[in-house]
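HOLO CASE FILE
Compound: inosinic acid
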Amino acid sequence: MSSGLEIPDDEKGYDLDLFCIPKHYENDLERVFIPHGLIMDRTERLARDIMHDMGEHHIVALCVLKGGYKFFADLLDYIKALNRNSDKSVPLTVDFIRLKSYSNDESTNSVKVIGGDELSALSGKNVLIVEDIVETGKTMQTLLSILNGYNPKMVKVVSLLVKRTPRSSGYRPDYTGFEIPDKFVVGYALDYNEYFRDLSHICVMNEHGKQKYKI
Ligand code: IMP
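Model generated. Tokens follow.
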């Protein structure tokens, strides 16, 4: 279990003008925090680490929608490339679950399961949960306790981001892409009230963006 690529608290990120940002978000963002290329490079290595540990048996990759969908798709592409290019390969099947725990930029105490396939299919399987971000850890702990009720053979969790926050329950995923400071981030499928999923880089919003998309 590694803490991933640690981004320090005083990391300033990058000026928006150095990257391509969709016009409709130009006035809503403060800085680029993790450029898309760096996300991809780190994801490639996560795929290798996961296959090293789980690559003996059929893997059921479980995507936590909606925020996990970009990371899920890119991670699986790298795992598929490893399967194509090495002496051993394992079948990979996919499944999807939808949870909701956020209102504006505040984590709420209740985690709601608002979708998902027939979870009994996970019984006896090696499951890889693919999540976008762990903040307090409550969402993942809730999901793990739901899944354990279906008796999977093994469950591992990979999260692209883990937030360093005093609100953490202490939960840590098995694999972490980046450990980030206690900031609300958007982009690469992470949203603020459904906006900013269509942004390639992980960015920090400005006050204008927060007000504009507040509900
Ligand atoms: P937790 O239960 O507090 O760990 O929250 C995890 C969930 O909150 C994630 O799956 C995200 O949906 C959401 N979340 C937490 N922090 C952020 C953020 O900085 N940006 C966007 N969504 C976030």
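CASE NOTES: The mean pLDDT is 91. The beta strands are 5-6, 29-34, 59-65, 92-103, 106-116, 126-134, 154-163, 175-180, 185-186, 202-205.
CLOSED: yes
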